[in-house]
Protein 1
Amino acid sequence: MNRNFELFRKAIRALTFKEKLLVHFFGLVLIGTIAIFTWNFYGGLNKSPRIVDGGTYNEGLVGSVKILNPLYTDFNNVDRDISQLIFSGLTRYDPLSRDFVADLATYTLSDDEKKYVFTLRDGIKWHDDTPLTVDDIIFTYKDVIQNKDFQNSVLKANFSGVEIVKENEKQVSFTVNEPNNFFITNTNVGILPKHIFVDTEVKDLMKYSSTLKPIGSGPFVVESGPKDNGDLTTVNLSRFEDYYGEKPKIEKVRFLVYPAGELLYKNTSQLHGISKLTENDLANLDDKERFTLYEYTLPQYMAVFFNFDSALMKNKNMRIAAMKSIDKKIILEEIKGKEIIDNPLLDLDQSEWFFKPSLEEAKGALFGLGWNIDKDATEDKARTNAKGDKLVLTLITHELPTGHPAQVETEKLIGLLKKQWLEAGIEIRDEYYILTELEDKIKKREYDMLLTGVNMGYNLDIYAYWHSSQAKAEGLNFSNFRSFEADAIIENLRQAFVKDEKYEEALKKLRKVISDDFPAVFLYAPKFYAAIDNRINNVNIKNLAFPADRFAYFNNWYIKEGR
């Protein structure tokens, strides 16, 4: 080492003055380069944002927690949101591909496209460490959903006539009567633990208190709650360390559920996320710069359904008058953040209107039915017939808590509808019912018109709403619309596993068949926003069928903090 150094020193001495300056210059450049590299590697990287495995995510919701049971989440979006992280199904919806992928199980489809065989993953546990088995799947679908006392009519209809068989300890099969390309979308239902509910009567499942800790197999465990403090209900979740899938990066999730939007807006400083905001809600959102907004739409619409079995609405000209009286553009001038919907087939372009408003045509249809306006009466008075009967139609809808955003919007909408109908001479008696009462009214079809929202879910299958077989007490054919031609098209669409030009032609034909009978006023579809704290990263919110689908990739979300 000393000899090498001596040789280096002699070499330097032999250099000219200019050569020595060059050596010193390049030496300084080399030292500077090494210093910068070292700083970037050891200092710069440490100052880059780091992904923290842990942290707590607080989400604000408006509504109430009813029952954290995946079989009843169709009744309450708050329950659906929270249950999405607690329970898991045979399959799960993948918003990016808009397809259903394996979750608890993989599956194969038989050549005749009727039999689905699911093979359960290995090593799946419930949150109480009990193994999840095929018996839990059989219990959920066969013992509960197919039970005559099961109270979710939508889910019950989806599995009506389906043969469910335990093939072995790892496999369960579902066999449908006819090929149905929509069937797989029903298998994302959260599975129930048999060992928890085996001794509970199916009719009593909805009475199972939401204050009791639900046991699921999803990525999060209920740590505490639901805890009701009057103006706030909290549900605290923690990461399930034995989860079979990719474990979430965020360790804890806290849901803060407020009965009214005003209370939520006062507490936004506590929140990292708010999921279902309208354009009007955005104006009330404080500290907007702290949030990133994600706009999304859902496959749903608001409509007024005409009851074909009603004494007045069974006449086609009355339905024409009721439909032609409504100008949706006027309504959307008052109710912002909506997109006009003109038919129930959401696969089709909604800009091609079949239902065009015309107050004169509405008046003409009513006059032709013998409903006249008293010349001496004011312009907005209801029409009467030769018997002196006043033209009054009953409109029923769901009543929500006072101040709830949906209730405020519904009341405003009904006010606008009543005003337009009265211009044609139709008086409306609007009636609001709580959910259980409304369901009873619908079962008995005790209404002329029903105002309700329809969510087409993951597959846009209209069978439940427009097939003749569903024009019954337990069915969702709210108009009691019956058409053999429509039935045939709907059944053929279900058997089409490829959505090609013929598929779209069939949709257009079905649209015409439905439109020709004037079964409803299709109003609008809402636009929503999710506001997520800027510190939450890797958020992907698109192609949602339900607001809860924003959690499809929640396991990938992370909190960026520190350097």
Protein 2
Amino acid sequence: MTNKEIARTFQFLGNIMELHDENKFKIRSYQNAYISLRKLDQPLAEMSDEEIGKIKGVGKAIVGKIRELLDGGQMATLERYKAETPEGIQEMLGIKGFGPKKIKAVWKELGVQSVGELLYAVNENRLIELNGFGQKTQEDLRQKLEYFQRSQGKSHYAKLEGPAQAVLEQLQAKFVDVPMNLVGAIRRKANEVETIELLMAKDDLTAEGLGAALEEVQTVENGFTGTTADGHSVRIYVCAPGEFGSKLFRYSASSEFLNAFVESNSGLDFSGLATEDAVFAKANLPFVEPELREQSWALELAKAQQLPTLIELSDLKGVLHNHSTYSDGLHSLRDMATYTKEQGYEYLGMSDHSKSAFYANGLQVERVYQQMEEIDQLNQELAPFRVFKSIESDILNDGSLDYEEDVLKAFDFIIASVHTNLRMDEAKATQRLITAIENPYTRILGHPTGRLLLSREGYPIDHKKVIDACAENGVAIELNANPYRLDLDWTWIPYALEKGVLISVNPDAHSKEGIHDMHFGVLSARKGGLTAETCLNAKPLVAFEKWLVNGR
């Protein structure tokens, strides 16, 4: 191990010990050792224990720990603390500017155990009430967390959408007459994206020509790589203008879709086509939207001339899953309602957290009725716009909802979601959801797996059994549009539609601006073939009211 690696190990030891409220003097000694060792010129590996002991701030105990690292690459004391600390918490210690005291607060007081969970908590404004946190601190932490996640090699689509469009526009302004387009996962609107990919019909492009738009430009096979000023990686493919359509199709399709396309069109040459439309025309197929070019089933629909008319954001008429200051939202119920109406929507579902969600200021029964009275007043003021009385009711460990029947029946509809005891096996998780689905007051199943993209995989469920239960009980399934969730995963939308289950694209908004996350939900829903007809909140107000009245 190098001196810097050994020094960082002592820094990490001091930090992790601080998480566990260990002796402050020991912690300080390890932090001082970090400072001394990282500045040392002579390699520790070449020094005797006696020589190491003469270094400022290095006593006999620390010499012994250094020797452990030099001889075996591990330190017993550190390994003991690591065994007592969740991996996600250890990972947080690597986030610059986010120290042990704050990490301990979110771990012990909020139960957060991973970077992704922390970022989600930040977006739900759960940190501002903690000691040492405020709105400014929370926003600063959000930026740190997003940078940390981006540096791990993958980003949420939502974080790359803007930068990708900016790169495209910048290059289009520089190369005005050159055909170009986004390709790859970013064009298919994948939930997670590694790199911004573009295709340019300019086979004489040079690295120097890209210098104004990108940094660290490198020449690679078929094009170039580089980074944006913000550090996002970019891959540019180049081709001749006459090949643009052929290459645009090739670089925009997943390997599964492309292989199925080639196999079903064996013998045909698709090279030398200037437009993507020409590729589909030559295959005698209708144009397949890029979002559908992930799996081969979309190609089968194209062959049968049965491609769906994919849902658009403009098709959505209502916003059904939202939080206000009654629970853990940033804006008041009135603010949420008036803002939603101003955006052109016909209705709002106010679905604050239920009483079991103590971590999110969930509504006790008296506050439920208080909110309902305010909703009645708002409906008189804002008509014909309507606010529905809803709740995001916690699904308890046994699958029951966390209010008595007389309270449950007072709501217009209930979204049932799991928020606690997430470490379940498939049988337990599946039965827990099915029990909640069979509750006669459940109308929408919220974020079915509880996943957080790039952070938490989600508890395992038998999707088919859960979807079948929704079909049997007239329950819609949420596609949670928060870009950190996008749960239900789009790959299960075709099966849900086959079973006649409606999908509700819900923002899970914790602020007025959060309503706009429905944009990302729609993009993910399109990948699964969702149409306006099969989307619950694409129903106009009267049709949605009828759906509620008809019940299950």
Protein 3
Amino acid sequence: MADLFTPQSLTIKQIFGNADSFYQIPRYQRPYKWEDEQIDKLWDDIYEAYQNNDKNYFLGSIIVANGGDNSSMYWDVVDGQQRLTTLIILFRVLIVLFPDINKIEVSKNPAVVDKGVLESSIFYNQKTERMKLFTHLQHQSDFNDFIIKGDISKWRRPYKYLVQADESPKHKFINAACVFKEKLETIKEDEAGKFVNFLFNSVYIIRINCTTREFAIRMFQVLNDRGLDLTPADLIKSYLMERLETKYKENKEIAQKKEDLFITDWQTLEQIMKDLDVDVNEMLVIYEYYLLGENPKKSLYDELVTQFKDKDPNEVINDFKKFTELYKNRIHNAVQNSIYGFWYLRWNIYWKSILLAALHQNYSDYEKLKKSLLRFYYLYWIAGKTLSKIKQTSFNMIKWVKENKSVDDIINELNKKIDDDRILKDVSDNLKLINVYNTPWIKPLLLMIEYNQTDSNLPFIELNNDLHIEHILPHEYQKFDEWTSIINKETAIEWLNRPGNLTLLCGSKNIEASNNPFDKKIKVYSGKGLYEDKDTKITAFNITQKIVNDFNANIYQKQWNEKAIKDRWNWFCGEVEKLMDITL
């Protein structure tokens, strides 16, 4: 094990000044991303230690590995690029603001840090960079133009939206320099000299030198419980690029072309993900479930490495990109009533994996499969079951789809499990509860019924604070003679919070309807607001408009009485029966 890695406790002067202190940020790493919060914390930690006169201040660890080319003198930075890059920016700001820093003191004490030491920490012998950035073709030149050669004294903070744009780390470089400039301008040159002496001689970093990138990544995974820079997606990206280097090591020209193609595909992938509800890491988990068709037994990284070890990395990334495009076009951006119900479910990763498996395999009965899957998950949700009850069946469905098992056979398997678990009885019992108002599934179920009122595809209705479940018979019905004359206490207790008395309203309409008599509620439901400054648009919900239509047709003598509530309950049950293909 000692041959695989060597930990070294090094001062900042040694980290940037030793004969082997040369670093490169490899292409599989993400660009520089630190903003004010992280930079402020780094500065505050170091400056507070300086003020407390700590003799040995520990700034954390970094993990480096021998570069892919064994002849290279540069270490690949697996973890620590943000700190190393930020410290070099700090060195440049010190040089620009205090060009004569410690000039007098250096002749008295060789440990004193002057401009020469700072410059040597950025360039060895004034020509060889201590650190190179390969995260993007433009990033090294941006770093040189704006930080190494730029006139930092004239920089002003970039607009916040520019700093937050990951694809433009040049603005983050400039912002970091401005943050340090503002802090250092508050202290005198003499104080800055003492601070930089402390920084270089009393601040330590443990550098873990690994003989291979693979072991460095393993080391990173072991230490990853403290939120380091890399993600599982970065690790997989690194592994696949390493495979490319190994596969084409005999032909550097082809290797470079293959790597460029890989990086282009990866960047396209990240661009696709920008507008989605999942990131690359979450999509890799979904892809993992699709590839395995069973519950993973190891970490995401280990499982995917096993899956990818005999595959061409360019084919892998291309297939994953197609997988993601299917998700974007056929699921995330789908304007389709039949898919909206999935978005309210708790078990997102499982239904997404199954539907994507079907789409990726061009499963012939996709629509019928989708309907059966939605039914299965909603029945178990309404029945009050947890993830453990549906997890294995979800993985089985991925496997069945990949095996091209007929949709009728899959439905039979699902029905058998539903029967074995006695789900339909639990569903029936829970729908009949005296209080369904506070259940997590009632609002999604009402929305599902709403979508089912038309053959046209409606816009998706989000579950947010603007969407409310409206009690037609209000909680405070006893305040109104109009209610107490037609509804007794026993009837109210039995029906108040059951589906027969519930509907949907949005925002101000719900507030306006509130605890009013029924005729005033109807005015709100139908768009005739109680007050002139209130929303006067007709309710957008068909299931609520049905109440208005019944009122106008004088079906219940324009009252919301016990018969009206019971008929609404029967209507609700009929809608659920159609949705869930069950008998209540």
